[in-house]
Design a protein that fits this description.
7-stranded parallel sheet, TIM Barrel, 319 residues, globular, alpha/beta
Length: 319
């Protein structure tokens, strides 16, 4: 049985310690696909309110959103306080429950390069100042990062572990149009290559089960993403949650979610074609609350993992 190269294995090998990602949600960040810069309403599968920090933090910054053209940020101190309080709480729990020794601060929700450079620098520098933090992982969109920010991250990468995570989703522009993505596949490729040239580590997010995509199309997305030189990958099935455009399509019978059988087969084939140096950070996703409409197999994460391991075992692989 061959062990799949995981992100955890990569971090253990590099730092000889238990390294955990600390997911951070900063109020005031949004997305150019939500604020109307490139589109309106967000991607069709995105429930925008799900990307909130605590209720009190949201109320404190209600109506305030940053973008690349923002000239000032009167709430920067509040954001820095959010960053510190979230890091302290989450890292303490990870130490207590999992024996975590070192940390990557993961700017997770919304688009975490979509703000003035001065704000980003303050947040990134603050995160790197915390005890036992070895680096950053920054979730963003390829149409929402500037050359100035990339240059700064490149400097940080000379001494720190710097990751940037791009939502690739699909390499087919007709699919990206259907999900209201707001940019094309060439834009993602361009910024992945730029990020690699700048010395950053890149994680690519892939979604299987997007509207009207065949398995051949899903696997072609995996193939091209690997060829672009990503260092790590997250695989997601597309599931439908309430209060989204995709939910409306599903209720009208215009969208059929991917079956678990097709997802498992596509995932296994994608992993089999993956170069060994690309680590795997995630093999599935789901949600177990009343917001999930379909497919129901995405409700139980533990059950999903059992089925994935069974499918991988059948081809001599272990996750």
């Amino acid at each position: 049985m061959k062990q799949i190269y995981t992100y955890g294995s990569y971090l253990r090998e590099k730092f000889d310690a238990k390294v955990y990602k600390v997911g951070i949600n900063i109020s005031g960040f949004t997305c150019p696909n939500i604020d109307g810069t490139v589109a309106k309403g967000g991607c069709t599968f995105c429930e925008n309110d799900s990307f909130s920090a605590s209720r009190d933090e949201v109320v404190a910054l209600k109506g305030f959103h940053l973008n690349l053209q923002s000239r000032e940020n009167p709430f920067l101190e509040k954001q820095l306080q959010q960053l510190q309080s979230q890091f302290e709480a989450i890292s303490a729990r990870q130490k207590r429950e999992y024996g975590a020794q070192k940390f990557l601060v993961y700017f997770q929700s919304f688009t975490n390069t979509y703000a003035p450079f001065s704000t980003l620098k303050a947040l990134y520098d603050k995160a790197l100042s915390f005890e036992n933090v070895v680096g950053l992982s920054i979730g963003t969109r390829s149409d929402s990062i500037t050359e100035e920010t990339l240059e700064y991250l490149s400097e940080l990468a000379k001494t720190k572990e710097i990751w940037i995570e791009f939502g690739i989703q699909s390499v087919y522009d007709k699919t990206l149009d259907k999900i209201n993505r707001g940019h094309d596949s060439q834009n993602v490729k361009e910024w992945i290559l730029k990020s690699k040239d700048a010395g950053l580590n890149v994680c690519g997010h892939l979604i299987f089960g997007l509207p009207d995509e065949t398995q051949e199309m899903m696997l072609e997305t995996s193939k091209q993403a690997y060829e672009w030189g990503i260092d790590s990958v997250k695989y997601h099935p597309l599931y439908v949650v309430k209060r989204t455009a995709l939910a409306n399509e599903y209720m009208r019978g215009e969208f059929e979610p991917i079956s678990e059988e097709l997802y498992l087969d596509t995932l296994v084939k994608s992993i089999q074609m993956k170069p060994e140096n690309i680590s795997v950070q995630r093999v599935t996703a789901g949600i177990n609350d009343d917001s999930l409409l379909a497919p129901q197999w995405c409700r139980d994460k533990n059950e999903q993992i059992r089925h994935i391991n069974k499918a991988l075992k059948a081809v001599g692989l272990k996750y």
